[in-house]
Design brief:
Blueprint: H1 10-21, H2 27-47, H3 57-69, H4 80-99, H5 129-142, H6 147-158, H7 162-166, E1 173-174, E2 179-182, E3 200-203, H8 206-218, E4 234-235, E5 238-239, H9 242-252, H10 287-300, H11 305-312, H12 316-323, H13 328-345
Antiparallel strand pairs: 1-2, 2-3, 4-5
Helix pairs in contact: 1-2, 2-4, 5-6, 6-8, 6-10
Length: 357
């Protein structure tokens, strides 16, 4: 502990922080910040941290685990999304606390925020169908055939991986079918995760085929990459890399882009409104979260698992363990609808009986 720090209790520091933020935040935001930080102050009291100057990185880890498990006061266990919001507020609080010599400088960096990794995302973090429709409807109306429109539409409607999306060329779009032809091309910098086994054609609906056609005619930057290929998703400098695609997805999956903020934050002052901080919004989603949501939506719509498996290039085992967000009751209803459709097609068969429904 530095000799330059001035003693202060966690509860006193929380109250000073709330007083400091009051002029900048809405009343609901202040309540949210205070609620998140009160659990931290309660935990400090429970473990005997009476002076915030004594806080260590190990303490922050212990709080993170205890808060997630519901082992702090009367607070219940929390989901990864809620925990992330709590820890993000704690980070901001600790940065302010360092400015008044209450904790060591850099303490905020010791708060490990649960991230939305493209291939290791928490199971309950996926883009639901309603939010996807809201985003795409908004883009349809206000940003038609833009780069972001194409990226969000293709990720949602095809469920493809980020690497597959950025590896697409203009020549991979077949407007006669219409479909996208995915190819494994590691020698020119665009491999597919499952290599040649992931090569496939993905059907496109007529509407988004038209969106792609308009994008190619009016919006796409007419560039060629260093290998002489014409990438589909571009910037003025060439094929768009993975990082800017992720940033764009994080930005557009923040609920406040198309509707109200569910966290009662003011977009004018919210810390997650910048391009670099968008991924830390508790409700933003990664490209992998869109993939998981797309797979779930297909399954809930009654698409057979083998079709989803082929279209999204995911094995049945991985599909059921890591991607399928449908409940047992939803799966039962999907099977029922499938059997009812089968009965309506083969009405003369005695194979099915009404009592089975």
């Amino acid at each position: 502990m530095s000799d330059d720090l001035e003693p202060i209790t966690p509860q006193q520091a929380v109250q000073l922080y709330v007083d400091h933020r009051e002029p900048d935040l809405t009343e609901k935001s202040i309540v949210n910040h205070q609620y998140r930080l009160e659990s931290f102050a309660v935990w400090c009291n429970e473990v005997g941290i009476e002076n915030l100057n004594e806080l260590t990185g190990r303490d922050l880890h212990r709080f993170r685990v205890a808060r997630r498990r519901g082992e702090v006061g009367d607070y219940d266990p929390v989901s990864p999304i809620t925990l992330r919001g709590i820890l993000q507020t704690l980070r901001v609080f600790l940065e302010w606390a360092a400015s008044i010599d209450a904790v060591e400088s850099g303490m905020r960096e010791k708060v490990l925020i649960p991230t939305v990794d493209p291939e290791d995302e928490a199971k309950d973090e996926f883009l639901d169908a309603e939010r996807a429709r809201e985003i795409l409807d908004y883009l349809d109306e206000f940003h038609y055939a833009s780069r972001e429109h194409v990226i969000l539409a293709l990720l949602w409607n095809t469920g493809m991986r980020l690497g597959a999306l950025r590896g697409l060329d203009v020549d991979d779009v077949n407007f006669d079918e219409p479909c996208l032809e995915l190819r494994h091309r590691p020698e020119t910098g665009t491999p597919l995760k499952n290599q040649k086994g992931a090569q496939r054609a993905i059907a496109l609906g007529d509407y988004y085929a038209q969106v792609l056609e308009d994008y190619l005619e009016y919006t796409r930057d007419p560039v060629v990459d260093e290998h002489g290929r014409r990438p589909l998703i571009t910037s003025p400098h060439g094929r768009l890399t993975a990082s800017p695609i992720r940033r764009l997805v994080y930005q557009w999956t923040r609920p406040c882009m198309v509707s109200e903020c569910p966290h009662d934050e003011d977009p004018e002052t919210c810390e997650f409104m910048t391009r670099e901080e968008a991924r830390d919004c508790p409700s933003s989603r990664s490209p992998h979260g869109i993939r998981r949501g797309s797979i779930t939506s297909h399954l809930r719509d009654g698409t057979p698992r083998e079709v989803v498996s082929d279209r999204m290039n995911v094995s049945r085992g991985v599909l059921e363990q890591h991607y399928d967000e449908t409940t047992e009751m939803e799966r039962m209803r999907i099977r029922r609808e499938f059997l009812q459709d089968r009965k309506s097609i083969d009405s003369d068969s005695n194979y099915l009986d009404d009592d089975k429904f």
